[in-house]
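Researcher: Let's run the pair from yesterday's discussion. Sequence first, then tokens, for each.
Model: Starting with the first of the pair.
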Amino acid sequence: MERKEHRNKIDIALKEIFIPFLREKGFKGSLPHFRRQQSDRINLLTFQHSLYDTKFVVEIANCDPNGITTHWGKEIPKNKVTAHDVVYRMRLGSDKQNIDYWFDYGKESLFTDNYKKIANEIIELWNDAEKWWEENPIDYGKLK
């Protein structure tokens, strides 16, 4: 199976399993970027797919509730900011695995739907994400 076919299948699994879960948690947005507005911050979640392999990371971050201004002066409003726009972020699964964790959706199995398994794995890591968002600092970008 080609990488593009794998990518389509993981996107379908994420849309069927993970994104409804994300909506229940108060997130808005669409693949690959999601935001949850809090009173004192915005929780960010972004999927970043490898350009060369059948893998992706889930990056999470916090930012000011009004968005950020980058160090080069670009203003990014709260409805456009992504985890890639902030410096301080974490890759979901990395703490548990003690590595720079990538979800690999290219492995095929006769007995398991690997795509659904990965979508559910992200849900299983959700408490780690919530803890990180609560305990880690807000990236304000350049102060105005």
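Model: Moving on to the second of the pair.
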Amino acid sequence: MTDLKRKESKLIKPSKSVTVPETIAERVLNFELEITGLISCVVVLGHFLLSSPLATKCLTLSYKVGPDAYDKGVDDFYFVGFWVVAFTFLRASIMKYIYHPLGRLVGIKPFGKRQRFAEQGFLFTYAGFFWSLGMGLLYVGDAYGPYWLNTSQYWIGYPHIYLTSLTKYYYLMQTAFWFQQIYVIHMEKRRKDHYAMVTHHIITIILLVSSYYTNFTRIGNAVLCCMDLCDILLSFAKLLKYLGFTTLCDVAFAMFAIGWPVTRHGFFTVIVWATYAEPDKYMDMLWEPAKGKYFTPFTQKLYLFLLLSLDIIMIYWFSLIVKVVYRVIQGRGAEDTRSDDEDEEEEGD
């Protein structure tokens, strides 16, 4: 009788394909698109139909001081807060209505695999757009002139208080995106480097907010451009992997493996060195908030600590890249060593 009951219990046991929300993350994800879409619509309607001052702060840039010049202030947090929600809505929408249908069209049947395909698709779309925009700003310059491949321009003319509208849109939206990524990494399937990722995102947010407040958006833009290129290449390689283009995936990953040390260790090291060696050549390094000056020997040390902490995390990730390169050389193909085993989940889905 005992054996019979065990067999019956197995027969009535719910299958893995039955989606039952078991965690807070799953419950939130079930209504993510609707909740963020509703909030975004309320803000947009509040601005255009009701002329709500709060909604206007969320949708438009504050502190305009000239035809194309903007100062900074606490009201900028409304804009950042709105875009945290808006990016969540855009991400969910693009994944659901663009990349999931595309995944089905090309034959990616398991939902779990298609979900990861969609996640990488959104990241590829976002990073591609904002890297292109950031490089344009880096090359053309801001309200104070160009600073392409010229680290001395990070400090000459400091403080760089006023921003063009495009520069301010870019910087605040990038800040919002990284705040939103804290939410994303806790919603997605947790990877083996989860805590390294959380630490990286927190440091990035601190650097973005502090550099914006202390009028160092030039160096902040340069750092973002160093980081975003590799996100494009890695996401593209993963998209090719999910599409089944193994050889092209390996080629794309090779480009990523070359681009990583060049941008995230080569160019980034130049920026770190410039932060260490150049400021006192071009600045008085005095604490004068009334004049927009916040860079002193003490704040210089704080920035160096944050940048070097970021570098340590990237060195850890580069060690994982080397492992994948070794797999490719062995003919085993490129695979993200941070990912957990997906076979069981995909079989169930």
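Researcher: Give me one sentence on the second I can quote.
Model: The chain is about 70% helix and 0% strand.
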